[in-house]
Amino acid sequence: MVQDRISRLIQQKEFSLEELCFLIALEGADRDFFLRETGKHYIQTLGKKVYFRGLVEFSNYCTKDCYYCGIRKSNSQAERYDIDDEQIVEAARFAHQHNYGSLVLQSGERHDTQFAKRITQLLRKIKEATNGELGITISLGEQSEDTYREWFNAGAHRYLLRIESSNKELYYKIHPEDENHNFELRLNCIQTLQKVGYQTGTGVMIGLPFQSIEDLARDLLFFKELNIDMVGMGPFIEHSNTPLYQYKNQLWPLQRRFDVALNMIATLRLLMPDINIAAATALQAIDPMGREKALRYGANIIMPNITPTLHRKDYTLYENKPCTDEGADDCSNCMNVRVCMNVRVEMAGREIGLNEWGDSNHFFNRQHTKQ
Ligand code: SAH
Q1: Which atom of ligand 1 is least distant from the CA of 142?
Q2: What is the distance between the alpha carbons of residues 173 and 156, in angstroms, rounded to a whole number?
Q3: How far does the centroid of ligand 1 lie from the alpha carbon of residue 69, in Å?
Q4: Cα(142)–Cα(107) distance, rounded to whole angstroms?
Q5: How much helix, strand and coil, in percent to the nearest 5, is found in the chain?
Q6: Based on CB atoms within 10 Å of each CB, which residue in 35, 112, 276, 338 is the most buried?
């Protein structure tokens, strides 16, 4: 029976490509069974803790032209912004005061030295303003080894750089093929981040045009192969001002993209039990309870958006992004932020790790096994 097979798989530590495809593609009652049992297994073996990262999307200026992304350079409709350092530090203080433990700084991709220097200063200011107590993850794209090192020394200790798809052919269907969008370069950057000493994260989008279940299974094997410490992955959501929008009729329905994304999270949890997995914001763009569901079935990181609301609507990577409309709660101004987040985490049957950095256990485990 299918469910017997699922029960056996949940106890396994190694998985074949075929087994991964089987789990990722599950539907209906068998899928419900898989998610429920994986969630139970995961919480029993790894505990209930969920960690917060206050997310600040501080600028949408971008030098890249990714075919899926709403803030791509060529989208002249995007209203560009860049939040002052003072305001970013203020958001960091907010996160610290609300016991978040960590901050994520994300922006469009820039490679100029002015930007690199600014980030170095900013990291120092944040560390200073929070007594060195706030953990910092950054997600600022491809950079030179020197820049990665400089930022690491200034206080960032985790880095997220999504490979977007580990299938090189698919990568070039969703990016221009030029010197500014190079698969090998991006891969090298991930390895450089590991070398420099960051807890290193990557991830993919799920439900891209031309993407198959097998591609997704291979993405999971890619994370394992690269010995990655953290993963952020979520459904692809088409944006009308981007080139990939033309394929909107060929995509999986939104609900299917969402379902497969949750299957991916649960399957990855079985494959890499000790890594950090984020409940991606894009999940919530499809289902109001999307992130809670991810926490229930394998994710252990949630990133409340604390970008000042004034600019939040402009960091529109995809449409229907949650909490971007004008009336929406600005988490950093919202009296309900703690209640909201507590309720969300508790609804998922989990507990919040307050004031903890919530580092990836995998990172420390791989340091031990290196010797
Ligand atoms: N500049 C940084 C951060 C990029 S934005 C970097 O290059 O790493 C963060 C992530 O949003 C991207 O890595 C991508 O995976 C995701 N994203 C962009 N457009 C999207 C879309 N249309 N649907 C879903 N996710 C998207």
Answers
A1: 7
A2: 32
A3: 6
A4: 12
A5: 45, 15, 40
A6: 276
Structural domain containing residue 312: 2-370
Question: Where in the chain does DSSP place strands (E)?
Answer: 49-59, 101-107, 135-139, 158-160, 199-202, 205-206, 230-235, 276-279, 301-302, 351-352
Cα-to-chain-centroid distance, residue 115: 23
CA distance linking residue 13 with residue 3, whole number of Å: 18
Q: In a mutational test of the pocket of ligand 1, which residue from 111, 119, 205 has the highest number of ligand atoms less than 8 Å from its CB?
A: 205
Mutate to test the pocket of ligand 1, among 71, 190, 318 (most ligand atoms within 8 A of CB): 318
Ligand 1 site residues, Cβ closer than 6 angstroms: 68-69, 106, 108-109, 139, 141, 161-162, 164, 205, 234, 236-237, 239, 282, 317-318
Q: Which atom of ligand 1 is nearest to the CA of 161?
A: 8
Residue 38 sits in a domain of what CATH number? 3.20.20.70
How confident is the prediction along the chain (371 residues), in pLDDT tens digits per residue? 999 999 999 999 999 999 999 999 999 999 999 999 999 999 888 889 999 999 999 999 999 999 999 999 999 999 999 999 999 999 999 999 988 999 999 999 999 999 999 999 999 999 999 999 999 999 999 999 999 999 999 999 999 999 999 999 999 999 999 999 999 999 999 999 999 999 999 999 999 999 999 999 999 999 999 999 999 999 999 999 999 999 999 999 999 999 999 999 999 999 999 999 999 999 999 998 899 999 999 999 999 888 886 677 778 888 877 766 544 445 555 545 656 777 778 777 888 888 899 999 999 998 877 54
Q: Using CA positions, which residue lies closest to atom 24 of ligand 1?
A: 236
Q: What is the position in ligand 1's atom list of the atom closest to the CA of 244?
A: 22
Mark 197-206 as b/e (b = at least 16 C-beta within 10 Å).
ebbbbbbbbb
Q: Is the pTM of this model over 0.85?
A: yes
How far is ligand 1, taken at its centre, from the CA of residue 317, in Å? 6
* Total number of domains constituting the chain: 1
